[in-house]
Design a protein that fits this description.
The protein is α/β, with parallel strands linked by helices. The protein has a single domain (about 10-255), classed as Aldolase class I (TIM Barrel), CATH 3.20.20.70. The chain has helices spanning about 65-75, 100-115, 135-140, 155-160, 165-175, 200-210, 235-245, and strands at about 10-15, 20-25, 85-90, 120-125, 145-150, 180-185, 185-190, 215-220, 230-235, 255. The strands form 2 sheets. The protein has an 8-stranded mixed β-sheet with strand order 1-2-3-4-5-6-8-10. Strand 4, helix 3 (about 135-140) and strand 5 form a beta-alpha-beta unit. Helix 1 packs parallel to helix 2 (about 100-115) and helix 5 (about 165-175) runs parallel beside helix 6 (about 200-210). The longest helix is centred in the first third of the chain and has 15 residues, at about 65-75.
């Protein structure tokens, strides 16, 4: 397992999907706060999955402290070979859980507009909080939204992500986002308990994607030790086949080999 992100800013992390991505971890220190408990998470199991910020007793970093930390790092990086291609809200859990998520986004936008106007501000989210107050407007204030959807059935999401939110509610939220990019992690385990890459699972997943009409679809599998030790990566040829099936119904889908990760900026 990877250690939790201890600072507010980490990286930049090089990624085939997002380029040189500067990660912003707005979760409390020493805590993995997430609404899901994904079998493939590179940070291990979520000890106590939460539904909203009030379920987390630790102190959340203030929007001002987050913006100051990002400003300090950007000041050092801009104009160097390590200058980031984007700022990405991610880290040790679900960033939209922050109780002042809208203020975090507003402050980061103001900072970005001042220091690096052409730098996209992105988020990696598990899509499980879209029904919480204020989350959708804040997400739509960002430049890029990379939203998880690992299956088209609630039963699949329960097995892969330990999700308690029904897929129908997630889909309704995703339909209300601007220019959303869906990211999907396909995995199997050798015990046969988890497999969202079967033909039926893929057909159902593509069906809900057609309802969402995303800007793009990113398909990958694991390349880091997962929380569930019996989990296995889905081979790249199968990921490419899934991408072709999505392309056949008009979706802009692409498979990425060797870059699948849990919740880090990637």
């Amino acid at each position: 397992m990877l250690p939790l992100q201890e600072g507010l800013v980490y990286g930049p992390v090089r990624s085939r999907r997002l380029g040189h991505s500067l990660g912003i971890n707005i979760l409390p220190r020493h805590v993995k706060a997430c609404t899901f408990n994904c079998s493939y998470c590179q940070y291990g199991w979520t000890k106590a999955p939460v539904r909203e910020a009030a379920d987390v007793v630790e102190t959340w970093p203030s929007p001002g402290a987050i913006a100051k930390a990002v400003a300090r790092r950007l000041q050092r990086l801009l104009g160097t070979k390590d200058a980031p291609d984007r700022l990405t809200l991610a880290g040790s859990g679900e960033p939209t859980l922050h109780p002042q998520f809208q203020d975090v986004v507003t402050d980061l936008r103001a900072l970005r507009d001042t220091m690096a106007p052409d730098l996209p501000l992105a988020v990696l989210s598990n899509s499980g909080t879209l029904d919480l107050p204020g989350v959708l407007p804040a997400l739509n204030d960002l430049d890029e939204r990379y939203m998880k959807l690992d299956g088209g059935e609630s039963a699949i999401l329960r097995r892969v992500n330990a999700a308690t939110v029904p897929v129908e509610r997630i889909v309704e939220g995703l339909k209300r986002l601007k220019s959303v990019v869906i990211q999907a992690m396909f995995v199997r385990d050798r015990l046969g308990r988890i497999d969202n890459a079967t033909d039926l699972a893929v057909v159902n997943w593509i069906g809900v994607l057609q309802l969402i009409a995303p800007k793009a679809v990113h398909i990958c599998s694991i390349d880091k030790p997962p929380a569930w030790p019996y989990l296995q990566a889905v081979p790249l040829p199968r990921l490419q086949e899934i991408a072709r099936r999505a392309q056949a119904v008009g979706l802009d889908a692409m498979a990425f080999g060797g870059v699948g990760r849990g919740t880090a900026a990637r």
